[in-house]
Design goal:
It is a single chain. This protein is mainly alpha-helical and 591 residues long. Helix content is 75%, strand content 0%. It is built from 30 helices and no strands. Helix 8 runs antiparallel to helix 9, helix 12 runs antiparallel to helix 13 and helix 14 runs antiparallel to helix 15.
C-alpha cells in the first residue's frame, strides 16, 4: 500500500509521474494484490491530471488510458466514479490530440455505462466538437440544440428574430449593471448548468458561421445565465462575442469595451476559454490598434488555447495570424512557411474546416509568389463548401482578389458576383478580414464600373465600401487611412474628377509609406499608373509602374512582378508599333 498516498494526492508530485511510468511499464500483470488495481488506476488518474496542468495532453491521455487498463471486470458497477472520470478525461485528451477513433471508442463506453443523462454530457460535448470541426457543422448544431432542449433550454426558432433587436435587448439588460458588478458576480455552482453553458458556447461558434442570425440569441442566453445563475468559464465567451456583434453593427468603441470586459472576466472565473476570447477579441481590437501591433495578440491567444487543450481555437488563431500577416504585408516567402506549418498543425488534429480555409489562402500566396500548383484540399471540401457560407465567402473573396491583382477582368467580375451572394449569410462576428474584403471589393467595383454595362450598380457598391473604410479610419487611422484614400481616388477616377483623383492617389501612397504597408504601396502606385496611362501621361505612368514593381518585389510577390513587367513590356512594344493594342485596364494575364 505504499502507493496509496500518491493515489490519494498526499504524496510528492516529484515522484508521482515516475511511479506511474514504472507501474505502467510493468502492466497489470505485475500487480500481485488485486486490491492494488484500483490504487494504480487512481494513481494514473492523478498523473494524467498533472500532465494536463502542464498542457501535455499526449502524456495525459497515456496515463488515463493506462489507468483504464488497470480496471478489472465490473469496474463500472464497483468503481463507477473512478471509471467515469478516467473515461471522460481520456476522451477529452483524445479530442485535443485529434484521435477521433479513440474518442469514439471511449464515448461509446460512457454512453453505454453511464447512470444518468448528466453523466453522458462530457462525451456528448466532445462528439459535438468533432462534428463542428469536420464537414458536419449543421449536424453538430442540431445535436447541440437537442441536448440543450433536454436540459430545459429551447433555442429552436431563434433565427426568425432581428439581430439588431436581440443586440439591443442584451444592451438593455446589461445597462442595469456596472462593470464592477459584472466582474464581481458570484460564480456558477450548478454542475448541470455549467455543462449547459459549455454547449451554448460551442453552439455560438458554429452558428456564427452558418446561422449568423441565430448566434446573437445564444450570446444573449449566455449573458442572461451568467447574471442570474453566476459566472462560468463560458461567460467570457458570451461577452466577447457580444462585443464583436456590437462592433459589426457599427459601434467599434462599444464593442471594444465588451472585449476588454471579457478579458478581465478571464482573471475572475477561469482562463479555460482564454483562447476563444483572445481569438475573437483580437478581431475587434484590430479596428482600434495598428495592425502590425495586433499580430502579437495572436501569439498570446495561441499559447492560451494550447495551454487549455483548445486545439480548435488554436487552429483558428494560427489561420487568422497567417491571413492578417498577409493583410499587413509580411514578406510572402516567410508567410509561405507560416501557412505550411499552420496547415500541418490543422491536418494532424483533423480540423477539416480550418484546413480547407487555410489551403485556399495558401493558394493565393503561392500565386502571388509565382508558384502555380494544383491546390490540395481536404477530402470533405465539397461537403463543407456546400453547407458553410462563411467558407464559401472566403473562397470567392480570394479568387476575386487574386484575379484583380493579376488584372484578369472577366474572372474578377465573375468571382466578385459570386462573392456578393455569400456576404449576407456568413459570419455574424466582425473580423478584420471583413475590412479588407470591403476594401478590395470597393476597388474592384470602381474598376468594373468603368468597364461594365452595369456601371451604376458597381459604382454604388464601390461607394458603400468607401464609406465603410472612411468610418473605420475614424477608429484606427493607422490601418485604414490609406485604403480610404485609395477608394476615394478610384471613385474620383470614375467621376472624371482627375484633379481630385491625383490628390487622393498621392495621399494613399504617402499613407502606405507612413504606416508600413509595402504591398498596398505597390497597389496604390499600380492603380495610379493605370490612371495616368488613361490620361495620356505616359512618363508618369511608367515611373509609377516601376515603383509598383519595386514594392511588389520587396513584398516577395514575384508572380505579380512578372505579370506587371509583361504588361509594361507589351505596352511599350505596342507604343512602338510592334504589337496589337492592349487596354491598360483589361489585362487578362492570370487567373
Amino acid at each position: 500500500m505504499a502507493l496509496a498516498p500518491l493515489a490519494d494526492g498526499k504524496g510528492d508530485d516529484g515522484i508521482l509521474l515516475t511511479a506511474a511510468n514504472q507501474l505502467n511499464l510493468a502492466g497489470p500483470e505485475a500487480v500481485q494484490d488485486k486490491s492494488q488495481y484500483v490504487t494504480v488506476a487512481s494513481l494514473n488518474l492523478r498523473a494524467g491530471k498533472k500532465a494536463m496542468e502542464m498542457s501535455d495532453f499526449v502524456a495525459a491521455y497515456s496515463y488515463f488510458d493506462n489507468g483504464i487498463t488497470f480496471l478489472r471486470k465490473k469496474h463500472w458497477e464497483e468503481h463507477y466514479e473512478l471509471s467515469l472520470e478516467l473515461f471522460d478525461l481520456a476522451a477529452r485528451c483524445a479530442h485535443t490530440n485529434g484521435d477521433v477513433i479513440s474518442l469514439n471508442l471511449l464515448s461509446q463506453q460512457v454512453l453505454k455505462k453511464s447512470q444518468s443523462f448528466e453523466d453522458k454530457l462530457n462525451v456528448m460535448y466532445y462528439a459535438m466538437c468533432v462534428l463542428a470541426s469536420s464537414s458536419k457543422l449543421p449536424e453538430s448544431i442540431e445535436r447541440g440544440l437537442k441536448i440543450l432542449s433536454r436540459l430545459g433550454i429551447d433555442l429552436h426558432g431563434c433565427e426568425s428574430g432581428s439581430v439588431e433587436a436581440c443586440v439591443q435587448e442584451t444592451k438593455d439588460l446589461l445597462s442595469g449593471y456596472s462593470d464592477d458588478e459584472i466582474l464581481n458576480t458570484k460564480p456558477m455552482t450548478d454542475p448541470t448548468k455549467i455543462m449547459a453553458m459549455k454547449f451554448l458556447g460551442k453552439l455560438e461558434i458554429g452558428m456564427t458561421q452558418i446561422m449568423p442570425k441565430s448566434a446573437p440569441y445564444v450570446t444573449q442566453r449566455i449573458i442572461q445565465f451568467s447574471l442570474s445563475d453566476g459566472m462560468s468559464p463560458v461567460s467570457p465567451i458570451g461577452f466577447v462575442h457580444f462585443g464583436s456583434y456590437i462592433a459589426k453593427l457599427g459601434d467599434i468603441s462599444g464593442g471594444y469595451k465588451y472585449v476588454k470586459l471579457a478579458r478581465s472576466l478571464l482573471d475572475k472565473v477561469s482562463k479555460e476559454n482564454a483562447g476563444e476570447v483572445s481569438c475573437f477579441g483580437t478581431q475587434v481590437i484590430a479596428y482600434v490598434e495598428p495592425l502590425q501591433a495586433v499580430l502579437e495578440y495572436h501569439d498570446e491567444g495561441y499559447a492560451a488555447a494550447m495551454a487549455s487543450g483548445d486545439v480548435v481555437r488554436a487552429g483558428l488563431i494560427t489561420q487568422m495570424r497567417c491571413s492578417q500577416s498577409l493583410f499587413a504585408g509580411i514578406n510572402l516567402q516567410a508567410l509561405r512557411e507560416k501557412y505550411a506549418a499552420s496547415i500541418k498543425f490543422m491536418e494532424e488534429r483533423k480540423l477539416r474546416v480550418l484546413t480547407l480555409q487555410a489551403q485556399y489562402q495558401q493558394q493565393s500566396v503561392l500565386k502571388l509568389i509565382g508558384i502555380d500548383q494544383e491546390p490540395k484540399h481536404v477530402s470533405e471540401g465539397h461537403a463543407i463548401f456546400a453547407t458553410n457560407k462563411s467558407v464559401m465567402r472566403i473562397y470567392y473573396y480570394l479568387k476575386m482578389y487574386t484575379s484583380f491583382i493579376f488584372r484578369s477582368y472577366d474572372r474578377t467580375k465573375e468571382n466578385a458576383e459570386k462573392y456578393l451572394t455569400c456576404i449576407g449569410n456568413s459570419w455574424a462576428n466582425l473580423f478584420l478580414a471583413h475590412a479588407f474584403q470591403a476594401f478590395h471589393a470597393g476597388l474592384i467595383s470602381f474598376w468594373l464600373a468603368r468597364k461594365s454595362r452595369e456601371e451604376q450598380g458597381w459604382y454604388l457598391r464601390g461607394n458603400k465600401s468607401k464609406l465603410a473604410l472612411k468610418k473605420w479610419t475614424e477608429s484606427c487611422l493607422w490601418t485604414f487611412e490609406n485604403k480610404w484614400y485609395l477608394l476615394e481616388a478610384e471613385e474620383s477616377f470614375c467621376n472624371d474628377d482627375f484633379d481630385a483623383a491625383k490628390s487622393f492617389y498621392e495621399k494613399a501612397i504617402l499613407s502606405t509609406k507612413d504606416h508600413k504597408f509595402v504591398h498596398e504601396e505597390a497597389l496604390a502606385y499600380e492603380l495610379a499608373a493605370y490612371f495616368y496611362l488613361e490620361l495620356g501621361e505616359v512618363d508618369k505612368a511608367l515611373e509609377y509602374f516601376l515603383l509598383a514593381h519595386e514594392r511588389y518585389h520587396e513584398w516577395g510577390a514575384n508572380g505579380k512582378c512578372n505579370s506587371l513587367f509583361k504588361f509594361v513590356e507589351d505596352f511599350m512594344k505596342e507604343r512602338a508599333g510592334q504589337s496589337p493594342t492592349i487596354a491598360p485596364e483589361n489585362v487578362d494575364s492570370a487567373s
